[in-house]
Amino acid sequence: MSDEFNMSMRKFLKQVGVTSQQAIEDAMRKAGVDATAGKSFEAKMVLTVDGIDLNHVVTGKIAGRDE
Question: What is the pTM of this model?
Fold first, then answer.
């Protein structure tokens, strides 16, 4: 793969990571510290790319706040 492709993909993935973290943190704040303390939450990220046959799913758990 070309350097340009790799750089654009890394830039996109960085944007996904940063904006996703912000969205999760905002949702946790809105849920309230007491509502999330000691709980874990199932999470799923779905990545699709127009023009190619890609449907990539990542699942995991996110721990609630301990504050």
Answer: 0.78
